[in-house]
TrEMBL record:
This is Adaptor protein MecA. It comes from the Bacteria. Belongs to the MecA family. Pfam families: MecA. Transmembrane segments: none annotated.
């Protein structure tokens, strides 16, 4: 299970088909609101809280889509609600939490690939659909693609995420670690450069 915070009120969670099988959930069963699926959902929410501080408070909207061989992507959005009575202390506490969450929000993702062929395959698919700032690193015998999502619409970001997951996996390795300990292969124009030289 991989959790990524998308903003103040939204998280994206990836769960593989292997994870589902371990929980005794069939692929078709994920769309049913059975006990196992409910338990899975609240496990995901607990994981989201532990990893990125996303806490379910009030109404939420849940979107899910499947990838043919990888697993299921679930996007959970906290829906704004207006409380009947809110005292001043809770307003101030909420404002403080909002500031912390905003600071933690990331506008970049890092994907890890086991071999260079997978990097090339991902670059070819992404190049035709997106205009991105991407850097490629080599670290601990794997390849890491750092993608800046700052100017992307949310819908495009989700589509990009799903495409990259066909060839690699999301990584928690930060840009700072890659710059310090990894080897920079291509800076800022990785997707374009790979397609130029390995088309």
């Amino acid at each position: 299970m991989v959790v990524e915070r998308l903003g103040n009120n939204k998280v994206r969670i990836f769960i593989s088909y292997e994870d589902l099988e371990e929980r005794g959930i069939d692929r078709d069963e994920i769309w049913q609101n059975g006990r196992k699926v409910q338990e899975l959902f609240w496990d995901m929410m607990e994981q989201a809280y532990l990893e990125v501080g996303f806490e379910v408070m009030g109404p939420i909207a849940v979107e899910a889509f499947t990838m043919p061989t990888e697993g299921v992507v679930v996007i959970v959005t906290q829906v704004p609600s207006i409380p009947e009575e809110t005292d001043k202390n809770r307003e101030e506490e909420f404002a403080a939490d909002e500031q912390i969450i905003t600071v933690d929000h990331s506008t970049a993702i890092t994907f890890m690939f086991d071999d260079f062929e997978n990097v090339l395959s991902a670059a070819k698919v992404v190049f035709s659909s997106f205009d991105l700032t991407t850097s490629l690193y080599h670290y601990k015998d794997r390849y890491f693609l750092f993608v800046n999502e700052e100017e992307m619409e949310q819908e495009d970001s989700d589509a990009l995420w799903a495409l990259l997951y066909e060839y690699g996996t999301m990584s928690n390795v930060t840009l700072a670690v890659l710059e310090e300990y990894g080897k920079l292969i291509i800076k800022d124009t990785a997707i374009e450069t790979l397609n130029q030289y390995f088309a």
